[in-house]
Amino acid sequence: MLLFLDNPYALPESEGLDREDPLEPRENLMRAVTRNQPHHVPYLFSLTPAMERKFRDWAKLGEDDVADLSRFFEFEMGGCGPDYRAEDTPDYRRYYKDLPENAQIDGFGVARVPGTFYHFTHTVSPLVSLDDPDVAREYPLPDRSDPKHWTHFPKQVQSLHDRGLAATFMPGHIFETGWQIRGMERMLEDFITGGDMSRILLERIAEDNAEAARYAAEGGLDILMTGDDVGTQHGMMMSPGCWRDWLKPLLARVIAAARDVKPEIPVWYHSDGNIEEIIPDLIEVGVTILNPVQPECMDPERLKQEYGDCLSFWGCVGTQSTMPFGTPSQVRDTIKDLIQTVGLNGGLVIAPTHVLEPEVPWENVLALAEAVREFGTY
């Protein structure tokens, strides 16, 4: 078991390890994601509310203290986004009947109803029972093409740069946003039948994301983050051909919008599950960073050998296996192996493959951070 008693606000130096870094955090991360050898392997993780309570207990933080993980660990990036205010959000309640009082409607009109387990919610889709293409055309999506939403974005980027951190931004999902509005089963039906409702929605979502990506690139963004969960544990959620027809051109449009402004910007793509069948397609449209590389269904070391000249890998630490069910020693061994294989010559950001859930022992989180510090310096 790892004990950090002297200073609850930082991990201790590993014995015999020189952590003096000639690179600022931003440059170190950018070297890693562009497949240049950094000074050390970057790492990061995110917490569910229950795990945040474990973090607060470890860090001796009160409920009113602002918890910023980067104050305690060595995270090298920060997120930024447009100034899209609540008053700019349309009233979506007209699309619902008998919506529960405890439902929360998000910026795309999708209702979330609290579930019975941890932080999970039920999704209620506003267009699930409609089939009129005109409704899809007129459905009030957020419009981020107005320059007023982007006035402060360059200042956010500069603030992160002043702290030595890389600036990241995700314009949004395409497929996931679409199916949450349309309904998962209805959208997959449309994929088979060619239904106009989904085609129109996805086109509109992608166009808005492309506008956001362009503004972000103009604002000095370091890493463009994209993605959709299109994989299951056993393979693609839809056929690769279906993905290429419906989603690949839309992803390409978003990436191209940023690349028109900043041609060399690294592009991060997230999908859980096994998406090996479309990795060459992702590379073709401009993806340069693959996340989360779920080790329960894809082999990170083999992917490094096959695609390491085109892709960096961000993740690779199992949240269905190593993090919740391994011992601190096993976490440590996993991190060491990943650094020596997937991290060979750079191209690796260590991260759990999803947000950390309550079954993860806090000792394993500390073991991850300490192992990167011990084994991750090149």
Overall spatial form:
globular
Number of domains: 1
Backbone CA Rg: 21 Å
Q: Helical residue percent?
A: 25-40%
CATH topology: TIM Barrel
Per DSSP, the total helix count is 14
The largest beta-sheet arranges its strands as 1-5-6-7-8-9-10
Q: Any idea what the CATH architecture is?
A: Alpha-Beta Barrel
- How far is the N terminus from the C terminus? 26 Å
Tags for this model:
TIM Barrel; globular; disordered N terminus; three-stranded antiparallel β-sheet; 11% strand; single chain; 14 helices; alpha/beta; 378 residues
What does this structure look like?
The protein has 378 residues and is an alpha/beta fold. The protein has a single domain (25-90, 128-375), classed as Alpha-Beta Barrel (TIM Barrel), CATH 3.20.20.210. The protein has 14 helices and ten strands. The protein has a seven-stranded parallel beta sheet. The protein has a three-stranded antiparallel beta sheet with strand order 2-3-4, with no helix packed on it. α11 links the parallel β8 and β9. It is globular. It starts with 24 loop residues before the first helix and ends with a helix. The model is unreliable at 1-18 (pLDDT under 50).
Detail the topology: elements first, then pairings.
Layout: H1 25-33, H2 49-59, E1 77-79, E2 104-105, E3 111-114, E4 121-124, H3 133-138, H4 153-162, E5 166-169, H5 175-182, H6 184-193, H7 196-218, E6 223-227, H8 240-246, H9 248-261, E7 267-270, H10 279-285, E8 289-291, H11 300-307, E9 312-317, H12 322-325, H13 328-341, E10 348-352, H14 362-375
Parallel strand pairs: 1-5, 5-6, 6-7, 7-8, 8-9, 9-10
Antiparallel strand pairs: 2-3, 3-4
Helix pairs in contact: 5-6, 5-7, 6-7, 7-9, 13-14
